[in-house]
Amino acid sequence: MPKATFHFPPDFLWGVATASHQVEGHNTNNQWWAWEQQEGRIKQGGVSGMACNWWENAELDFDRAEAMGLNTLRLSIEWSRVEVAPSRIDTAALDRYREMVRGLHARGIEPMVTLHHFSDPLWFAEQGGWLNENAVAYFTRYVEQVVKALGDEVTLWCTINEPNVYTVLGYVLGDFPPGIQDQRQAYRVLRAMLKAHAAAYRRIHQLQVKARVGLAHNYRFFDPYNPRSPRDRWVARIQDLGYNQSVLNPLLKGTWSLPVGVGFAWGLRRKLDWLGLNYYTRDLIQFDKEARAKFFGRATHAPDAELLDGNYGELYPEGMFRMLKKFAYMGLPLYITENGIPDADDDQRPRALLLHLHQMWRALQENMPVKGYYHWTLTDNFEWAEGWTLRFGLIELDPETQERTLRPSANLYSAIARGNAITPEILNAYVPVLRSELFPE
Ligand code: FCB
To answer: Between 135-150 and 183-207, two packed helices, what is the crossing angle to 10 degrees?
Structure first.
């Protein structure tokens, strides 16, 4: 057995990602809580309930993150707790967040703070949410409060999580609140969110010299099912434009692109100090003349693909490398702000985790500027419309009893983070099936 080791850079950040509504519990003042009360909205009638009980005791999980040897953690601030009604700020809520981020520092864990992760205050949703002409101003006003309260503890800011997922699920497919299926509204929402990102970027920098501000984009590959078919290539390209480029073109190139808009995206360029990429899977796209509503593209997967639980798509670790290569040229620091798989029995996760991290290591060998990796997620949590049916945690959670059990993947991830490397010993101990693939004799 050769003694090769895949090392990561000395200051590499190893963390986990979370979101307020998925972990805090009792976020009764946002649009998701209201949505959960409606029949048929959440799989198996799930509700967020007390979630992972973070509002009471996030520190319990922070201890576990520390014990795993992690040095960063991504968490989000719940707008509906901070601004309970228009302009009515709950300072006790801000104090609690302050306590949390201080608690992270005390454990040697750098916080990355997301300012919007899918949940909106009820009052904001009732006024039309991101379709309201004042949405950007409302959001910036809230951001200002957070930065003033946490600015001496936090410098790594993620303005908005996945504007594309928020708009596609909420305004095209209708699976997320407000359950609308109207492409035009979707584009308006997306434009507002991107403008809100830019406005927040400017405001944060005015308030904090050391701030590093970015956004997390859900990047999904849309590959043609048959690369030789011009029609498959064409429909795959359309999906990519609508899902990926609609967000990335304005931010990276300063231009809107169809179908969201045309022309210059004034004020949106150079509003990223770093780019966050949430990577899960890919789709293979096939031309289908019946799929009018989906721009004639039908999503499928490779015939030999290893599929993930809960219909989540294919296991496609190569996508990690391909994606990083796409963005490395920009010279912006890149963070993998989310990556993981749903896997309650942890029979695929150890291999999946290793293969993804190995692809990230490959990217680092080619000098791609990857600064950190946030696994989704630490503890099983409320998985939006999927309720509790998808389990993404390194730690298993029984939401009723709040009992937690480490999955084998938690120990694997811990060994990698602690050693800042993938070693043959780690492979032997946790994923022996990969030994010959990653360390050929
Ligand atoms: C991402 C979301 C995150 C979680 C994972 C599984 O799209 O940002 O909250 O739901 O998917």
So the answer is: 30
User: Does ligand 1 come within 6 angstroms of the Cβ of 165?
Assistant: yes
Question: Would you say residue 431 lies in a domain?
Answer: no
| 161 Cβ below 6 A of ligand 1 | yes
Which tens digit of pLDDT belongs to each residue from 60-109? 999 999 999 999 999 999 999 999 999 999 999 999 999 999 999 999 99
Question: Does 138 fall in a domain?
Answer: yes
Q: How far apart are CA 135 and CA 238, in angstroms?
A: 29
Residue at 185 is within a domain: yes
pLDDT digits over 178-197, tens only?
999 999 999 999 999 999 99
Q: How many domains does the chain have?
A: 1
Query: Are 83 and 127 a contacting pair, CB within 8 Å?
Result: no
Q: Does residue 281's CB lie within 6 angstroms of at least one atom of ligand 1?
A: no
Contact 38, 95 (CB under 8 A): no
Task: Please state, in angstroms and rounded to a whole number, the distance separating the CA atoms of residues 274 and 433.
Answer: 36
What CATH number should be reported for the domain holding residue 176?
3.20.20.80
**Is there a domain that residue 352 lies in?**
yes
Q: Is 379 in the pocket of ligand 1 (CB under 6 A)?
A: no
- Give the residue, out of 220, 281, 384, with the most ligand 1 atoms within 8 A of its beta carbon, to mutate for a pocket test: 384
Structural domain boundaries, residue 81: 11-420
Q: Is 12 in the pocket of ligand 1 (CB under 6 A)?
A: no
Number of H helices, E strands in the chain: 16, 15
What's the mean pLDDT when you consider all of the chain? 97
